[in-house]
Amino acid sequence: MSLVPSTSISNNHKLYFSKNELSKILNLYSLGVSNGSWKDYSILFAKNEANFYIYKHTLASPEWILNKFLEKKRKKIFYKLINKNYNNKFDNLDILIRILFRKNIYLTN
């Protein structure tokens, strides 16, 4: 039996969406699905970022990417909304969701 030295344990914690953040994102996503705008999503967690990809078609590239990332210089978390024609950084997820809602969701009666 061998012991693992403490120096081999690195700080490899992945960045995740919180339960509240994921709930807000999935609520917006469900509106897009019910509207017929979006068909699929995927989530990717990495060391310093978490991504939520929204697809218009299952086999297509993502239409929107919601990115949560840690900026090491400021040691602060930011959110980014990415599309082929749009790339903007936000301090707050609620602002990002409001902008994405206005840009892509058109509710009909």
Question: How would you sum up this structure, described in words?
Answer:
The protein has 109 residues and is α+β, with helices and mostly antiparallel strands. Helix content is 27%, strand content 31%. It contains 2 helices and 5 strands, in the order αβββββα. The chain has helices at 19-35, 93-104; strands spanning 40-45, 49-55, 64-71, 76-83, 86-90. It has a 5-stranded antiparallel β-sheet, covered by helices on one side. Strand 2 and strand 3 form a beta hairpin. Helix 1 (19-35) runs parallel beside helix 2. The longest helix has 17 residues, at 19-35. The model is unreliable at 4-10 (pLDDT under 50).
How do the SSEs run, as a string of H and E? HEEEEEH
Radius of gyration: 17 Å
Low-confidence stretches: 4-10
Largest sheet: 5 strands, antiparallel
What do the pLDDT scores average to? 85
Main-sheet strand order equals: 1-2-3-4-5
Count of discrete alpha- or pi-helical segments spanning 4 or more residues: 2
Helix content: 25-40%
Shape: globular
Strand content is: 25-35%
| Main structural class | alpha+beta
Please tally the β strands and state the result: 5
Distance between the termini: 67 Å
